[in-house]
Amino acid sequence: MRMRILLLYLLTNTRRYRHWQCYCITFIVIAVMFMFDAAFLTKTTPKTRPHSRKSLSATQFFELINSKYGQRRILERVEMEDGTHLFVFDQWSLGKEILVKRTITGDFVHEHSSVLLETPAELSEINTDTTKWSVQHGLLRTGSCYQLLVETVFDSGAIGLSHSSNAKMLMIGLGGGIVNGFLHFYIPKMDITVVEISAQMVYIARKWFGMHFNDRHRIVIEDGAKFVEKEARNGRKYNAVLIDACDSLPAENVTIICPVSVFLEESFIKNTAQLMTNTGVAAFNVFSYTLTSDKVRELLTHRFSKYFDYCNTKETKVRNVIFYCMLHRPREEKQIDLMQFVQNIS
């Protein structure tokens, strides 16, 4: 305090005397004050502890993530074009190993898309940031609607299961890009077109699910029904058409939430049939709170039978049903071993 008073005195009296000694003393006082403040800040500023690279057990690592983020980590809240919001979050569980799942949801109850992340080889404090973990594009959860959608394409015989296949596939609905990402990962020559109505969903898929597109794996931001109508009018043909698009704001009286109702209208069914090659397949991810698998097959077969000769269903381990149709009844339906195919390539 005395030093500050002295400084004030010198500064106010320098103008009166304007002696060079006053300037020197003033400079020295300022320098001393600066060193004093710097020393004080050094002592009082907390030191940041560097992240440790010490190897941890799976249990220790799991507890460390829980203590840092809680039971889940919300990565982003995204406002969609219709005013609704989607959340992207990571959530972890511990069994024989740590599993971290990245999910898109609107209410933290129902999943839009989810995928497992690649656990780092080194379990240490420096690797607890899950945003830096890679997405496992080459993995589909057993019994999930994603796995059954893919298996339906090959079981039906619409496309041969081969790493070198160059078949043409159209997908309506992107989500996190789980199915198209898997197919492009293992069958890079397959010609995949994904149509997604929401630019915000494409943003989520790119940023949080590691989606990259190229000339064999392309994205079109457009209304799916209008795109199919245009493709049918232009005489385009596809070996498979997959529909995985759900209603984010279903009305109370809607019994089928997936797919969106427009994809069950006669005009869309007709246009889809026109896109099919002779042995092609159209497969729909269907979700209903009230309808059983048999009821879904009965209801949808009635709608589709005017344009497709053969329809059937596959049941997932959850409430989803895969409903698929072909222009002609296949000679036989195979039971391909998708996991064996993956292992052979890996």
Topology:
Layout: H1 2-17, H2 20-44, H3 58-69, E1 72-79, E2 85-94, E3 98-105, E4 111-116, H4 145-155, E5 168-172, H5 178-186, E6 191-196, H6 199-208, E7 217-221, H7 224-233, E8 238-243, E9 256-258, H8 266-275, E10 276-288, H9 293-304, E11 310-315, E12 321-326, H10 338-345
Parallel strand pairs: 5-6, 5-8, 6-7, 8-10
Antiparallel strand pairs: 1-2, 2-3, 3-4, 9-10, 10-12, 11-12
Question: Descriptors for this entry?
Answer:
346 residues; alpha/beta; Rossmann fold; four-stranded antiparallel beta sheet
| Proportion of helical residues | 25-40%
Q: Biggest sheet, open or closed, and with what strands and sense?
A: 8 strands, mixed
Give the CATH superfamily of the largest domain.
Answer: Vaccinia Virus protein VP39
Count of all domains: 2
Structure report:
- It comes from Ancylostoma ceylanicum.
- This is Spermine/spermidine synthase.
- Pfam families: Spermine_synth.
- This protein has two domains: 75 residues, no CATH class; 201 residues, Rossmann fold (3-Layer(aba) Sandwich), CATH 3.40.50.
- It contains ten helices and twelve strands.
- Strands 5, 6, 7, 8, 9, 10, 11 and 12 form an eight-stranded mixed sheet that branches. A four-stranded antiparallel sheet has the order 1-2-3-4.
- The longest helix has 25 residues.
- The protein is globular, with a radius of gyration of 30 Å.
- About 6% of the residues have low confidence.
Quick overview:
With 346 residues, the chain is α/β, with parallel strands linked by helices. Helices cover 36% and strands 24% of the residues.
